[in-house]
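Rotation project, supervised by the postdoc (A.L.). Task for the rotation student: set up a whole-complex structure prediction and record inputs and outputs verbatim in this book. Inputs entered:
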Amino acid sequence: MTTDALPATPSAASRWILRGLTGGIITALPVVAIGLYFIGFAPNYYQHLAAAALVNLIIVVGLQVFMGNSGVPQLGHSAFVGLGAYGLAILATPVALKKLSIPHAPFGLSQITLSPVIAIPISFVVVAVLALVSGRIISRLSGVAATIVSLAFLVIVHSVFLHWPELFKGNQAFFGIPKIFGLPAIIAGAVAAIVIARLFRESATGLQLRATADNLQAAEALALDSRALRRRAWLLSALICGAAGMLYAGFAGTISPKVFYFQQVFLTLAMLILGGMGTVTGAMLGTILLSFGLEAIRSVETGVSVLGIQMPAMLGLSGVALGVVIVLCMALRPQGISGRYELDEAIGALLRRNSRMDKAE
Amino acid sequence: MEYFVQQFVNALAFGSEYALVALGLAVVFSIMGLVNFAHGEVIASACYCVFLAVAVGLSQPWLAILLALAAAGAASVLLERVAFRPVRNAPTTTGLLTAFGVSIILQNLFQLLISPRPQAVPVLNGLNATWHVGGFTVSSLQVMEFLAAALSIGALVLFLNRSTLGIAMRAAARDFSTVRLMGIRANRVIAMAFAISGVLAGVAAVFILARRGSVSPDMGFGLVMKAFVACVIGGFGSLSGAAVGGMLLGFIEVGLLVALPQEHGGLKEALTYVIVIAILVYRPEGLLGSRQELGDKEI
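Outputs recorded:
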C-alpha cells in the first residue's frame, strides 16, 4: 500500500477516475464478448433474447447505483424505465401512427414528431425532473420507509400510465415507435452504464455514500450529508434506468405498461441479489447467470418461449425460481456471488498473491 | 345524509381492514425488525385453504371462518420457522428481501398448483346483506368488519398489557436481549408475534373472501402494499401508528372515491399514495413514529 503514496503516482483526483475507468472496462468485457458472439453467430430470435437481457443488465446496474451504494432497498426503479420508454415513444413516434394510437394527446403531442436526437434528451429531462422530486422525498425517509415509498412511487407511475389513455394509451400496447436501436447500440449502452456506475462507485460521492450505508451515525458525525448523497445516487440510478427504457422502446418498437411493473422489479432484483448488490460486477454476473438460467427453465416450463426475458412466469415456475434465488441468497450468502470485490480488484488480488508466492519460492 | 353515512361506514370498513393487516405487519416489525412482504400471501393462503375445503365439501360459513383464522395463524408461524428464522439476526435489508422472495415464491406456487385465474369461493357470500339501521341502509359486511377489527384490536391490547407473554413482547420491541436475560424464550416470543400477526390477517381474509367471493394468487400483495403505506404514515413499528395509519388510509381512499369524477376513478390509488407521500414530506418519521437514528441509545 505504501507504494501508492509515492510522488510518481497520479494525483488522488485522477486516480479514482483511472480506477473507475479500467475497472468498468474490465467488468464490461464479458458483456461485450457475449454480445459480439450473439451478433456474429446466433440466429435472429436469440438476438432478441440477448437484447432483452442486456436491457435488463442496464436496469440492474441502475438499481445497483442506488441500492448497492446506499444500502437502502429500492423497488420502484421500473417506474423510471417506463418513463424513459414512454418519453421516447410519445415524442419520436411518427404523426401518422399517433393519429391511430393517441389522437387526443394533450399539449399537441399528437401533432409533432421529434427526431430521436432531440427526443432522447427531452426524455432524459423528464426522467430527471421526476427523479429530483421523488428523490427529495425518499432521501428524507429512514431505510424501510424509503423502500415502501419507492414501491408506492412505482404504483403511482403505473397507475398514471393505465389511467391517462389520451397520452399513454392505457392498458394497450403503444406501437409504431421507430426502431432506432439495434443490438450493437444496446451493447454500447450496457458498457456505458457499467463504466458510469463504476465511476460513481469510486468517486467521492460513491465512497461517502457507501460509508453512510456501513454506519450512518459515524458517517454523519464526519459531516457527511447522507440525504444529499442519496439524492445524487437516486438521480443517477433513475437516469440509467430511463436510458434502459429508451433503448428497450427503440429496439422493440412496442411497449405496454405491464412490462414496467412488478415482474420486471422481481426479475432485476433477483439478478442483483444473486450477483451481489455491493458491486457493479455483481450486477453483471447476476444478470448473465439468471438470463441463461431462466431461459433454460422457460424451455422446460412451456416448450415454446414468448419474446423472452421481459415476461416471465407465464405458468409460475420461473417465478418460483426467482423467489428461491432471492431467499437462498439471503439465507446463505447475503452479499451475493461477487461479495465485496469488483472483478478487477479480485483479479488484482489474485495476481499479487501469485507474485508473492513466486518470490517466496 | 344517507349517502354520507354510507360512505362513512364504507371508510370505517376499509380503514379497519387496512388497520388489521398493518397491525400484523407492525407486531412482527416491532419485535424482530422484519419487513414482512409475505404477509399478503398469509392472507392468500388462508383464502386458498377455504377454497380447497369448499372444494372437498365444506359448506358451513362459521367453519370456513374458523378455518381461515387457523390457517392464517398456522401459515404465518410456519413461514417464520421455515423462511425467516435463518435471517433473524441479519440486517433489516436481508430480512426485507427474504420476505419479498417468499412472497414471490408463494404467489407463483398458487399460480402453478391451483390456477393463475381467480377461483370462486361463494361460502361466505351470506355475510353480505343489506341492513336498515335507524332509517339508513348499510352493508352488514362493513359493520361487521369494523366490529371485528375493533374486537381484535381490543383483544390484542388486553393481551399485550395483561399477559406475561404480551408484556414480554412489548419489552422485546424495546430491547430483545434484556427480555431474554429475564428468562423468556426468544423463539416463543417471536412465534407468538407471528401467530398474532397471522390471526389478524385471518380476520381480514374472512372479510375479503366475503366481499370478493373469489381467490386469486396476487390478492394479498396489493393489500399488503397499502398496509405498509399505512404503517409508514403511522410511523413504522408503532402499533397504535399502524391502526391510526390504516384508518386514515381508509378515509383518504373513500374521500377520493367520493370526490373524484367517475371517469378519473382509476386514479384513486395513485392519488391516495400522492397524499400519503405529501404527509411524509412534513413528517418523515410518520404521525406517531419516533426518530430511529438514535440506534441503541433510544429511550
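Student's summary: Confidence is low (pLDDT under 50) at residues 1-8 of chain A.
Supervisor addendum: Residues 10-261 of chain A form one domain.
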